[in-house]
Amino acid sequence: MDVGTLYRRTLEIWADRVADAAGCDWTAPTPCRDWTVRDLVNHVTGEDLWTAPLLRGETIERVGHRFDGDLLGSEPVSRALYAAGQASALVAEMLPRHGTVHLSYGEESMDEYVHQLAADHLVHAWDLAVATGGDTRLDPKLVAEVASWFAGHEDGYRSAGAIGPRIVTTGDRQHDLLAAFGRDAHWGPNHAGLARFSAAFGRGDVEAIMAHMTDDCVFEATGPAPDGIRHEGAEAVRQVWEEVFSTKEASFTEEELFVAGERGVLRWRFSWANEDGSPGHVRGVDVLRLRDGKVYEKLSYVKG
Question: Distance between CA atoms of 266 and 260, rounded to whole angstroms?
């Protein structure tokens, strides 16, 4: 498959997933750990808007901050689709010239740049679909084409920090492509729920924390040694969070999060201000169980 056809077809898949997301929750988490649905669509829209000036020979320095910030406004779907349409038209016009473009790392061939765009659109189409409950199936021919190209680029992407660690492969071509891009092909409600749960702790938002715990939840505290105190039921657990966040300058920072089936692990740092104003902190880990995207068991441990 020629790169022009690959690009056009991956862009069509992306556009379909954007259109399907019209009525979704645009604040929902995505497999791109730091991005909501809106952040993800904004990122790809930015890539699409960059495509025209780069293919026309402009440099990154000349484009400057033209496409920084929010590009979606009050009509995210229409703006994203407009940007995709503009990019598709320019690639169809310019790619047959097989020229060069100026990228952040230097001059690159148009063909290679368009390959990068095709891969991004295909993988982000899956990111968007799985985050919004859309169709996560990818065309096997496009998966094979992108996988073949990416085999020679994976190490470079990972060393540049553009993708996360490789996930264990399964032999399924789509799953293995996602694994190469640092995606868990089984990403779903438990991943999204734990991401929201962790974010709520980061904000110190007790109502949001409890919204992501079941009514029959259980929390096992870090102390006193050796077993901690076990709190059962939503009301008992809520009282603990209210006490925790009454501590002066209390804050949680996520260090790592991952989910495997119904089990999750969350590494964190808890900071506060002592009576004399000096800072204090502990680092710990939660071993969790989840049910339908909500936490029902949270067992906490800290470094001694």
Answer: 12
Nearest to 195 by CA among 203, 238, 54: 203
Instruction: Tell me the H-state helices in 95-229.
Output: 110-132, 140-150, 154-159, 173-180, 189-203, 206-211
If the chain, 304 residues long, is cut into consecutive pieces of 10 residues, what is the mean pLDDT of each piece? 95 97 93 93 97 93 91 96 96 93 91 96 97 95 96 87 82 92 93 95 96 97 92 97 92 93 96 91 97 96 89
Q: Which residues pair with 282 in a beta bridge?
A: 270
Q: How far apart are CA 14 and CA 8, in angstroms?
A: 10
The partner residues of 268 in beta bridges, in order of sequence, read 254, 284
pTM of the model: 0.88
Cβ 298 vs Cβ 288: under 8 Å: yes
| Backbone phi and psi for residue 138, each to the nearest 5 degrees, phi listed first | -115, 145
203 and 197 Cβ atoms separated by less than 8 Å: no
The whole-number pLDDT of residue 192 equals: 94
pLDDT at 171: 79
Q: Establish whether the linkage from the previous residue to 226 is cis, with ω within 30° of 0.
A: yes
Strand, coil or helix: what is 264?
A: strand
Is there a contact between 42 and 149 (Cβ–Cβ < 8 Å)? no
Q: Are 9 and 84 in contact, with CB atoms under 8 Å apart?
A: no
Answer whether 144's CB lies under 8 Å from 34's CB: no
Kind of pairing between the strands at 213-220 and 294-302:
parallel
CB 70 within 8 A of CB 150: no
Q: Are 111 and 95 in contact (CB under 8 A)?
A: yes
